[in-house]
Amino acid sequence: MTTAAIIVAAGRGTRVGGDIQKQWRPLAGRRVADWTIDRFQGQVDHIVLVLSEGDQSAWSEFERTNLILAAGGSDRAASVRNGLDALADLEIEHVLIHDVARPCVTTDLIQCVLSALNDSPAAAPGLAVTDALWTGDGHFVSGTQDRTGLFAAQTPQGFHYGAIVSAHAAHPGGAADDVEAARAAGLDVAIVPGDADNLKITRPEDFARAERIMGTNMNVRLGNGYDVHRFGDGDHVILCGVKVPHDRGLQGHSDADVGMHAVTDAIYGALAQGDIGQHFPPSDPQWKGAASEIFLRHAVELAETMGYSISNVDCTLVCEYPKIGPHASAMRAEMARIMGLRADQVSVKATTSERLGFTGRSEGIASLATACLVKS
Ligand code: MG
Predict the structure, then answer these.
(1) CA of residue 276 to ligand 1 center, whole Å
(2) What confidence tens digit (pLDDT) does each residue in 165-192 have?
(3) Which of 44, 47, 53, 158 is deepest in the core (most CB within 10 A)?
(4) pTM more than 0.70
(5) Which helix (H) or strand (E) holds 83?
(6) Average pLDDT, integer, range 276-304
C-alpha cells in the first residue's frame, strides 16, 4: 500500500494579519508549516508540499528536503490538482489532503483516516456540532438553526488516489474542500471522529491556542552520546563527516568519526534503542572502514519510524589539534545534509582540555553530543 499526503501551503492567509503568510509565522519555536510537515513524516510514503509560485525562499529551502514540491494554482482546488499531478508516476493508492494551517493534527488522527480508506473510497474527520446554532446579522440573533446531523469539517481528508484525481478533474470549480469535490463525483465519504485540538489557524488568537495544545501534547526526548578514538598513523581525520588534514589519523573499526558516533549514540539514546555497537557490531567485518554516515542515517531512520523528528543536535569535540573552528560550518552543513535537517538545527563546537588528560596529551579525540527529539 503506497500512501501520500498533500500539504496545501500556497494560500495567502491574509485573515491572520501581518505581512508574513500564516504558514511561515512562528509557532512554539518553529514555523507553522514545519510543525505540520513533521506530523506527516514517517506516517506516509511521500509528502507533497504545494507552495505559492512566488514564494522563492520557500522553494529553495524545501528543494533540499525529502518533500516533493508542487506549484500552487489560482485557487485551492487548482493547488490540490497540481499536488495530485506531482504524484502521478508514484502508483499512490491512498492520498491525504491537508491544510498547512492545521499544525496540531495528531498521528492518531492521520492513521485513523488512513485506516478508514480500507473500507471506503474517501474518509475525513468531522466534529459533531454541539453548540446551539444561530443565524444573525452581526448585532442581533435573527433565528436558530437545528444542529442535528451537522459536523464541522477537518483535514486531513483521505481518498483513493484515482478516485479523487477523477473527481477533481470533473468538478466545475468552487468546491469548499476535497470532500465536496468527491461527493459531487458520487464517492461515499466516511466520517471519522475529528479532534477538537486539530484547529485551523485562522485568527491571530489561534496561535496562542495552538501553542497551548502543543505544550500539553509535546513529547520530548533527550539523549546523550560520548565517544573516544585514539590517534595513530595517518595524514587526516574525519570529523562530523569532514576530512581534516592532520599529522595523525584516528584509529577505529569504521572511519573513526568520533563526532558523528557521539551524535548517532545521542539519537539512539533518546529513543532508548541502545548504541552503535549494538546495531553495527564491531565484530562484523562488513563495517570495517565503513563511512559513519551509514550509522547516523540508520539512527535518523529509526527515529522517523518511531514517530520522532529531530529538533536539534549539539556536538562538542574535545582536542588540542586539529583546530576545529575553521571546519565547524562545513561540519554543521554535512551533518545537517545527512540528517535531513537545516544547518540551524545542528551545532558543532570544540574545546581543548587545557592540555590535561588524554585529549590534552593529544593521544586521541573525545566527543560529546546531545540530541533532542520531538514526537511528530
Ligand atoms: Mg566510535
Answers:
(1) 8
(2) 999 999 998 888 999 999 999 999 999 9
(3) 158
(4) no
(5) helix 76-85
(6) 91
Instruction: Say how many Å lie between the CA of residue 264 and the centre of ligand 1.
Output: 10
Distance from residue 299's CA to the centre of ligand 1 (Å): 14
251 Cα: distance to centroid of ligand 1 (angstroms): 9
63: closest CA among 309, 310, 340, 300?
340
User: How far does Cα 156 stand from its chain's mean position?
Assistant: 16
What is the Å distance from ligand 1's center to 247 Cα?
A: 20
d(CA 93, ligand 1 centre) in Å: 42
To which residue does cell 498533500 refer? 6
Helix 258-270 vs helix 328-339: crossing angle, to nearest 10: 40
* pLDDT recorded at residue 376: 66
End-to-end CA distance of the chain: 22
Domains delineated in the chain: 3-217 (3.90.550.10), 220-375 (3.30.1330.50)
Whether the pLDDT of residue 14 is over 60: the answer is: no
Distance 340 CA to ligand 1 centre (A): 22
> In angstroms, what is the span from residue 224 Cα to ligand 1's centroid?
14
Residue 286: Cβ-neighbour burial (10 angstroms; 0-12, 13-18, 19+): exposed
Q: What's the CA-to-centroid distance between 194 and ligand 1, angstroms?
A: 47
pLDDT of residue 197: 95
pLDDT, mean of residues 84-109: 97
Phi, psi of 248 (to 5 degrees): -140, 165
Measured torsion, CA atoms of residues 330, 331, 337, 342, in degrees rounded to the nearest 10: -80
